[in-house]
Structure to design on (207 residues):
């Protein structure tokens, strides 16, 4: 007597749902507004640590010259070369390790998350922003912040390459690093201005 086993149902592999992934990412971004205060505290703590290193350690290594990161208006190739020369190999390695491979590896991402959280938190105090779909809110915040994030990391790579290989320092590479620093600060000003405008508008509505 032969037993007849029931045929196994054909299984169809689940197809990836790009919309589900985007919805999950949107929800994660929107939740950042709940942690705006904590992110501000962390960003401030890292920034203070970087500032202390700059004024009490790095400037001793460079004979009092400001680091290239601190030159908001950029620098000439001669000024950049003077900084590198004053640092020397040892000073360059110290700044590379204690700034670009530690604090400044984290800070642009941390500051970007903080800016996104503040844009969402201050924007939701305004009716016109609050009624927007969550995806639109998150896209708006990302569009404002991501250009700064990319410019900051690009600038870090440019300066870190100069510190790791002094022979790569020439007028072109120094001019590129200077342009990226100016661009970084200009792009950082955009979300800061929007956050300030949202906050002021929210204050007027509450008054």
């Amino acid at each position: 007597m032969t037993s007849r086993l029931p045929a196994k149902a054909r299984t169809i592999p689940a197809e990836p749902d790009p919309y589900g992934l985007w919805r999950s990412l949107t929800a994660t971004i929107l939740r950042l507004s709940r942690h705006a205060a904590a992110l501000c505290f962390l960003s401030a703590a890292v920034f203070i640590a970087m500032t202390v290193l700059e004024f009490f350690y790095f400037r001793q290594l460079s004979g009092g010259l400001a680091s290239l990161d601190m030159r908001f208006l950029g620098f000439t190739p001669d000024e950049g070369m003077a900084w590198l020369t004053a640092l020397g190999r040892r000073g360059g390695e110290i700044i590379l390790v204690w700034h670009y491979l530690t604090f400044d590896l984290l800070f642009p991402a941390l500051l970007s998350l903080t800016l996104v959280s503040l844009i969402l938190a201050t924007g939701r105090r305004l009716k016109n922003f609050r009624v927007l779909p969550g995806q639109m809110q998150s896209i708006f915040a990302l569009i404002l912040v991501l250009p700064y994030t990319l410019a900051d990391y690009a600038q870090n790579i440019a300066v870190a390459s100069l510190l790791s290989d002094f022979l790569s320092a020439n007028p072109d590479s120094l001019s590129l690093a200077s342009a990226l620093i100016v661009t970084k600060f200009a792009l950082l000003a955009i979300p800061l201005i929007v956050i300030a405008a949202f906050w002021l508008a929210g204050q007027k509505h509450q008054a």
About this structure: The CA atoms of residues 108 and 153 lie 7 Å apart.
